[in-house]
Amino acid sequence: MSARALGAIAAGVIAVLVLCAGGIGALFTSGGAASAVCYGPTGPDGQPPLPTLHVSPPTFSAGRRWSSDQTANAALIVTVGEQRKVPPRGWVIALATAMQESTLRNLPGGDRDSVGLFQQRPSQGWGTPAQLRDPRYAAEKFYTALLAVDGWQAMALTDAAQAVQRSAYPDAYAKWEDDAIALVRTMGSANPSVGSGGAAGCADVAAVFARARSWLTAWSGGPVPYLSSGNPGDWFQGYRRDCSGYVSMALGLDGPGLNTAGLAARSTVIAKNDLRPGDLLINTAPDLRGHVVLFERWSDPSMSHYYGYEQSGDGGTHHRLIPYPYFGDYPMIPHRYGRTG
Q1: Who's near 61: CB < 8 A, 6+ residues apart?
Q2: Which helix (H) or strand (E) element contains residue 316?
Q3: What is the pTM of this model?
Q4: How far apart are CA 143 and CA 160, in angstroms?
Q5: Chain-centre distance of CA 218, in angstroms?
Q6: Is the N or C terminus of the chain more exposed, i.e. has fewer CB atoms within 10 Å?
Q7: pLDDT (tens digit, 9 = 90+) per residue, 127-136?
């Protein structure tokens, strides 16, 4: 993004709420038509997305509850499985395993040298500690190992999980099976795109924000530095470190990522008041003068400011409050990637 560029929802609420991974989904009306909305995580002000909706977290067996961070991690695990074309039974096995190993939390450490959602060990060849702290990488490695297990789909869940994890407690995974099934069903019922590879749906939106958040601390504990380069040696996790490479990563697109013009070409222009979590604000100017921001939520009912995720030259990866449409007089147009409704 150039120096020039750098210088530069609330409608009537219908009283029906649905559970969405990573947040609470509500039905809103706009011009008389109802549409599903999935909220992303809370903003840096620590407040829930507008409008404020106070709904208890979902309850599963034995009174267990999963927080928005935990369900966001679950959504990412399911999304990776869907993208890998792993049958849903594999998603359940992966979720139950992560429930047992980390209670769906991306742990910085654990027993011996265990790391991350699945408590995989660098000393056992799973990857480096930094790689295993990346939830997407950890899920990919789990599914790769699961798919290599002969006959895994016919196994009891705890046997399939143990074949991958080689835990000292081989029967521990069984108790999470009902919760894992319920969570997959919950995300599936709220996410009509599961199985179709579409961009819409609560589980997908939660996964988008989980990936976006990951770059805030992925570079030695800090934001990933900005760099626009076509040299693979300069990329990070297979993606360019510019604004469009970052957003491509968050959307789950193939690396090294589309440019701003490519993102716009595969998107639909939408109205300002139709912006939803996971939408984009794009300027397609050439020669590094363009920019793209991942929209999270409005900060106020007047829609004068919003929280967004972006990659820019003034510090790399950001999650921050942005005046609509952007700082200064820099023009940005709302888009919805891969969706027309």
Answers
A1: 178, 179, 182
A2: strand 316-323
A3: 0.50
A4: 11
A5: 15
A6: C
A7: 888 888 888 9
